[in-house]
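Researcher: Following up on the earlier apo prediction. This time include the ligand. It's zinc ion, with the SMILES given after the sequence.
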Amino acid sequence: MLRQKYPLKWHKENFSIKIFCSIPNIATGILIKAGESLLVVDPGDGILRDLNKEISPKKILTISDLYITHGHHDHIGGVWALLTYMRVMNKHTPLAIHFPEGCVEIESIYHAFKKVYSKTIPYEIKLNVITGSKSFKSNGVTIKPFPVIHKEYLHDGVTTKQVPALGFKFTYEGLKICYGGDTAYCSDIVKNAKGSDLAIIEAGHDEETPDDMHMTVNEAKSIGMSAKEYFLVHVPE
Ligand SMILES: [Zn+2]
Ligand SMILES: [Zn+2]
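Model: Understood. Below is the ligand-bound prediction.
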């Protein structure tokens, strides 16, 4: 089995990405720098520790956007910690949270946070519920969300249901980073990864039989190779 050595880093001109980790069922954590803008993608457990090591506490407070591909715990486990840290440390600039429509985990965390701290939150939280795949701009970066196929098991351990899940293509000064989140092989990830400067593709399936939750290493590689450079992530450890 292919093993990643985290962190994975990529950087071109004023655009860079650091993947602190991406381990299925454990944690993900990604920081993108686009000029002066700092964006965090899929803040799983440990994101605050990793950000603290990477950038100063002051800089953590300038993070402007959180991008959530889906609500599984390995992608959002650090959201509460981040929101609370920003409150305690007195963030004043707004924070936008971008997430797929129907992602009840983020909605619930947001409402619980607002309820617990009510009028003592010093910064504005802007929720951006993504309903389609229309591109939008935030803090100098153009984001193209796209739907992906990702499922989870119900109690019986056999039946599966689709979860609201997105991939994101980030464009800054003409450079493109495509991150598929968790996804089975699907046409949207194929289309969006193609020609990107960097594609980050999950290979979360540990057998060679494709399913509708994650991709095999071969599927992920075939998509990655259509980009200029690629990382395979979310490989089971
Ligand atoms: Zn995952
Ligand atoms: Zn997942």
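Model: The chain is about 25% helix and 35% strand.
Researcher: Noted. I'll compare it with the apo version next.
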